[in-house]
Backbone:
């Protein structure tokens, strides 16, 4: 229970620090906050190697999804990059942070891909709305466009990350409580 509380708290502090850094035009400070929280979450993990693999993959794939949002104009970070397929460092750092929290904070989503998609469709836009309210980014003037596009992004990304976590990370716990690796198919007789 303490690990779960620490994981949730670290993820929230990392998110707020990173978005706050973006809003204050101190993107490297924001990224530093998120990456520090990521490192601490790795320490909490029972499978550091598997969690690190998850962090690396999500840290590469996730920013591509945000780059699409930036190029579509549904999200415009205040320190928007010159190149449309590049994301600010503070925004990039949120992806490893989220991945590092997955094995502890979100392990209850293991195998629940429909629930992960629904949660992503709702929570994704809410997170970006929060970032916009803090001043880190602007959303499309027709807000519904941003909400739909970000909701679709996260309805796809969250189940993907849940699926990937199940393949890369082994967290102990009773059945359904951890992020188990997928069962091996039984050999045909």
Residues:
């Amino acid at each position: 229970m303490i690990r779960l509380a620490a994981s949730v708290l670290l993820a929230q502090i990392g998110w707020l620090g990173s978005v706050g850094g973006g809003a204050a035009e101190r993107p490297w400070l924001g990224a530093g906050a998120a990456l520090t929280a990521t490192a601490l979450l790795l320490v909490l993990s029972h499978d550091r190697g598997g969690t690190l693999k998850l962090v690396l993959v999500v840290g590469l794939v996730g920013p591509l999804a945000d780059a699409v949002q930036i190029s579509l104009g549904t999200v415009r970070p205040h320190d928007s990059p010159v190149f449309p397929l590049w994301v600010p460092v503070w925004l990039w750092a949120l992806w490893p942070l989220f991945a590092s929290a997955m094995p502890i904070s979100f392990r209850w989503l293991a195998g629940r891909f429909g629930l992960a998609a629904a949660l992503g469709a709702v929570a994704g836009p809410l997170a970006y709305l929060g970032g916009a309210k803090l001043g880190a980014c602007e959303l499309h003037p027709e807000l519904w466009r941003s909400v739909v596009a970000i909701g679709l992004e996260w309805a796809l990304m969250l189940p993907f990350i849940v699926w990937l976590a199940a393949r890369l990370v082994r967290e102990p716990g009773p059945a359904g409580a951890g992020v188990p690796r997928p069962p091996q198919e039984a050999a045909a007789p």
Observations:
- DSSP finds seven helices and two strands in the chain.
- Residues 174-187 have pLDDT under 50 and may be disordered.
- Residues 2-168 form one domain.
- Residues 143-168 form the longest helix (26 residues).
